[in-house]
UniProtKB/TrEMBL annotation:
InterPro entries: A-glucoronidase_C_sf, GH, Glyco_hydro_67_aGlcAse, Glyco_hydro_67_C, Glyco_hydro_67_cat, Hex-like_dom2
Domain Glycosyl hydrolase family 67 C-terminal: 419-642
Keywords assigned by UniProt, alphabetized: Hydrolase
Domain of life: Bacteria
Glycosyl hydrolase family 67 catalytic domain span: 109-418
Keyword Hydrolase listed: yes
Protein name per Swiss-Prot or TrEMBL: Alpha-glucuronidase
Amino acid sequence: MEAFRPLGERRTLIRGSGPLVETVHGEVAWACGVFGGEVVREGSDDAGYDLVLDVVADGAWGDEGFAYGREGGRTTVTASGQRGLLYGLFHVVRLGGTAFQEDRPREGHRPAVALRMLDHWDNVDVHPVMGQVERGYAGGSLFWRDGRARGELERVRAYGRLLAACGINAVCVNNVNVHASEARLLTDRLGEVADLAAMLRPYGVRTHLSVTFAAPVVLGGLPTADPLDEAVRQWWSGAAARVYAAIPDFGGFVVKADSEGQPGPFTYGRSHADGANMLASALAPHGGTVHWRAFVYDHRQDWRDRSTDRARAAYDHFAPLDGEFADNAVLQVKHGPMDFQVREPVSPVFGAMPRTRLAVEVQATQEYTGQQRHVCWLGPMWSEVLRFRPAGEEGSAVGELAGGGLVAVSNVGDDPYWTGHPLAQANLYTFGRLAWQPSADPLRVLDEWIALTFPSAPKRLTEGLRPLLRGSWRTYEKYTAPLGVGFMVQPGHHYGPSVDGYEYSPWGTYHFADRDGIGVDRSAATGTGYAAQYAAPWAGVYESPATCPDELLLFFHHVPYAHVLHSGKTVIQHVYDTRFEGVEEVEEARRVWASLADLVGAERHARVAERYEEQVRGAREWRDQVNSYFLRKSGVPDARGRPIW
Ligand code: GCU
């Protein structure tokens, strides 16, 4: 084996042509400028190079895959397409120095999921209630400011680079709630979208657009948006053709229809398959896809109506339509049946639509998980969802059933740290890596993120940071709503506790706590029947409190406070204990972070420290409100006599 050359003297050979190969070349040239070394284009002889990045158009690795190996003192990346070369380069970057030291036989890498998308809930105008970014906790939008395109295109390009490094290949640039200005991105403001697409394209990121189902009426002046009306169909075909003329690699449309007030096919007595297929046929000649969201439920429910269960809605609306959707229509399903709570069961839709392309939608933006003021690394939750097997151990995992892609609501804004809370970047990175390989071990991904974010960090830093992030989701769960019951948040902005905040509201998110017990009976025998939307074995597991996992007990059952969990504790004592533990864990995390001050840049350290102050305050608030509420409702004192108000 030849001795390896040290950093600063390495020589790289790049073979291949095309815009993404130029990107790869630009990246390596930049690195040589910073660290030293040399990059050469083309050349038939590999001898004398430390790294050879090669596009061999033999199709062996697909469009995005690559082979990586190291033999005889040379590291090689071979891809069949330009995108693969870019991902191969980032693989080398992830490996760092070891990519040039340890010999390894060639190994193949390909994404398990073809579409790995971030949906930005960014508004063009500042919305009077939701602001520039709906549920955004990282400052303003990277794309839009106060009614206009922001125009900071280099920043958008840097964002494309960040996404490619995480393995993400698609971005939807506007909110699923499409207001008047945003609607026009499809037509007279399309040029603004094309400018963004041009910046994202060199990093292999395709651009998608959220559109309003009412576009033929509000933009086209037609009297109807009926999906079966010929003039409507023609209008959409024309609109799609104009989009592709401006953005040849456009990804497609994202649609929130008949959901929380957005227009949809129900107005015309048509089904969601009719609506989705109409858009799919407009996109089909250009190779585009419609992402049709399954988040359809009655948001004007009467809280007195115990027969309606919001959790049932996606399955009830969509499962009967299985097999009716066009090939280029993807049904985008939230991972749980409600709305991105810290704990929900996996949506039963994933097991119920084998003849439909499904995408899993998760929420990287931490709407219900601390709004990027609290540390809550969601890797383990997403991994549980992706590994869940709707038909039991013998069946496929959700990650394998998601042929239509993995989608996260973005947690990125114009904040200098991208994500507001610097540690929330771990969610962005983890999402991208799990989308590439849903079966990946999230803890390994976390270690990767730590190593990349804090290069050459001493052990004390990595070992301090790791447990803070690893346990943060469960810690958050401990001090907020217990045992899968969900919500209990302040209405509207959803930050901080309000146990009865949504209890008498029209949104269908109730916990039904009374003096005797708490939880929602969703059993088939005595409740809403939601449990029966699952196949075996899950329908049986969830049907009975005896088999239902503790962490989901109150999602599926209404039980007395004295009910004994599998853990051996009563429900009420679990409520008290976990809230006290949750606060203690956050206090400990704050202490550990403070102890790392000498190892982290001062600004970054201060930003996180300040957020830990808020997290400690918030966790205590949650603890005290939830505990006091349940002490007052139940009259059962804490077995350990701790202060409850
Ligand atoms: C949640 C969220 C809304 C969002 C909606 C959606 O309800 O609070 O802001 O529009 O999800 O996913 O469409």
